[in-house]
Amino acid sequence: MDLFLNEVVDVSNEGRQHAYKKKIISILNKADEALTIPELCKKVRLSVPTGTRLINELIEQDIIVQAGKKETVNGRRPAMYKVDENYAYAIGVVILLKSLSVSVFNLAMEEVFSFEMEDFTLENTPECLEEVYQCINKTIQLSKVNRHRILGLGIGITGRIDSKTGRSYNYFNFLENSLVAFFEERFKFSVHIDNDTHMLGFAEQVFGKAKNVRNALIVNLSYGLGLAMVSHGEVILGEQGFAGEFGHMQFGESDKLCLCGKRGCLGTEVSGHALEENFKKQIAKGESSLLLIDKEKQEINYKKILEAAREGDSLSISLIHNIGFKLGKALGNILNLLNPGIIIVGGRFYPAKEILTDSIKSGMMHTALSLPLRNCEISFSDISSDAAIKGAGVLVLRAMNLY
Q1: Helix axes 37-44, 48-60, angle to 10 degrees
Q2: Backbone conformation region of residue 304, classed left if phi is above 0, alpha if psi is from -120 to 50, else beta
Q3: β 161-162/167-168 pair status
């Protein structure tokens, strides 16, 4: 693991060999397919004898493994090599208002273990922070991965996050040092942090529909509402990392009080929280729903409303359609401002994509200019509603130039 974690600080022969080994691992882990020794040497700019020696040393360390033979027209088929994807791991964590998710990924970003605490409630208290720590620690224990093989921890958390300093300004802001420093002291490996919506943007860039796209908007529609903006191939973070607070823009039509203390924020009308409040309001007015038939069911939340809509519940469908229309109107304004090539809707509203797609497009037609709207693709994410946690894992591997 020292090879992954230690930086080269000298220019000695040993230091140069260390750097070459890291470059070999980086190239192999990023490659779409296994490579031969000559192919690797060409990419690393090493002679074949030197490259062969270094690769053999990496094989002896169980970092690199043989991955079959290369097809050739004639002659001996050369061996191909890849990084052993289970040699090291990255931990991804997403902390939301109503859920806490932890996943363990290998070097190929394959999920080897995951755990989600559904009854979690995010609070700005030492007790809640300890609960988060214990959940992460328990997940690592249950995964049975070697702790010495963990490269780091990537955390996506709701609210304002300064990824440069590692500080969270909305939650766990009582710490004397940063949130990153707290977890690094506990776990003894590197920790990286960013806003959960930015994590969603990273995931879409690496695994999803924003891959190789220069200008895109990625909407995070879950319990809250956020926006990752990709400009010229880069996720816009802003001066302090606060960019993308879509839910707090004044596109709303109501005077509801937002969690931020202001009124009229879009998130009070377009979010999972808004869906729950609207559902309760309509039920109080005498509306009926499939969700009310079984009195033994647990307390109704927005995820259950989304499921009910898929089962044909008219009230749930109507409320979700209304949210989609308002989201579309707001996105039309952003489209006029930034002129993206694609708008990707991600987050936990994925089960209702069939209802939302047409309503979002209808809303956008009310505010967007015709030319940019005509040339912008509107699509739902195809990398699941848990994309943000994959972004958290990628954050670790990207920091080490492994992905």
Answers
A1: 110
A2: alpha
A3: antiparallel
Nearest-angstrom CA–CA distance, 309 and 249: 28
Per-residue tens of pLDDT for the chain, all 403 residues: 566 665 555 556 777 888 888 998 999 999 889 989 888 889 989 898 898 999 999 999 999 999 888 877 676 788 899 999 999 999 999 998 888 999 999 999 999 999 998 789 999 999 999 999 999 999 999 999 999 999 999 999 998 999 889 999 999 999 999 999 999 999 999 999 999 999 899 899 888 899 889 999 999 999 889 999 999 988 888 888 888 889 999 876 778 888 888 898 999 999 999 999 999 999 999 888 888 876 555 578 899 999 999 999 999 999 999 999 999 999 999 999 999 999 999 988 988 999 999 999 999 999 999 999 999 999 999 886 678 899 999 999 999 999 8
Find, among 347, 307, 341, 311, the residue nearest to 327 by Cα. Answer: 347
Q: Distance of CA 88 to CAs 52, 82, 113, Å?
A: 23, 14, 14
Closest CA to 379 of 212, 210, 203: 210
Our CA dihedral for 307, 313, 315, 318, rounded to 10 degrees, sits at 80
In the beta sheet, which residues pair with residue 94? 101, 156
Q: How far apart are CA 23 and CA 228, in angstroms?
A: 31
Using CA atoms, how far apart are residues 101 and 117, in angstroms rounded to an integer?
6
- CA 351 and chain centroid, separation: 18
| Residues in CB range of 227: below 8 A, 6 or more apart | 197, 217, 218, 219, 220, 244, 245, 246, 334
Say how far apart CA 90 and CA 154 lie, in whole Å.
8
Residue 253, SS3? coil
DSSP structural state of residue 123: -
303 beta partners: none
